[in-house]
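A common beginner's mistake is to predict each chain separately and then try to dock the pieces by hand. The better habit, illustrated here, is to supply every component at once so that their relative placement is modeled jointly.
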Amino acid sequence: MMPPHEFKLTHFQAMVIFALVISIAFGFLSRRGAYKRAKYIFWSFILFLLIGVGIGWAMYPFSH
Amino acid sequence: MPDEVPIAETINAIPVAPAVSPYPEPTQDRHRRDALALTIGAAAWFLPGLGHAFLKMWGRALVCFSTVLLLVILGAGMRGNIFSRNGEDAFAKLGYVADLGAGSFYFVAKALEPAGPDVSHANGDYGTRLLATAGVLNMLAALHAYEVARARKA
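With all components supplied together, the output reads:
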């Protein structure tokens, strides 16, 4: 049985959380104003996911 | 050839900003500001968000604190490896530097992981990455606070 503070995440869940948290932090650190921050966070998050999934697909043939 | 060439003919009358400010900052003030910036940078490293809080950047302070804390809680909860000072190879030493970047949260991560790391599963490996990310992100935030305090960044 897992302790109450132990998490089990899939690779995809960990990647989504990582992308979201880092995008928010980068957006707040590098941009000023709500609109610019939201735009930066959105695009950064989407690109993190797309590039992550893309690299996963690119590596797929080598794992078989 | 005349000694004095009209300015309009030599530089096409485009105004050029002086390379050095005509009002240089007194050395004593500059040293004081550098010392303050170093203190703010160290505070930002020790407690994520504290440096930005000193600079009254409340949104950034809150985001730095909460994102680093979330990554530490997740990383420790996934039983990621928290590297110690006695690293055996270069990667372990590099991991220690990255983990230590989280400042006081390095010890929070240790406290949240009483059973120790478990990197025999992929989950623990992801946790190791999240802990390192927390440290590196905090170092970046501390550097940002330092640069703002030195008036190099907005």
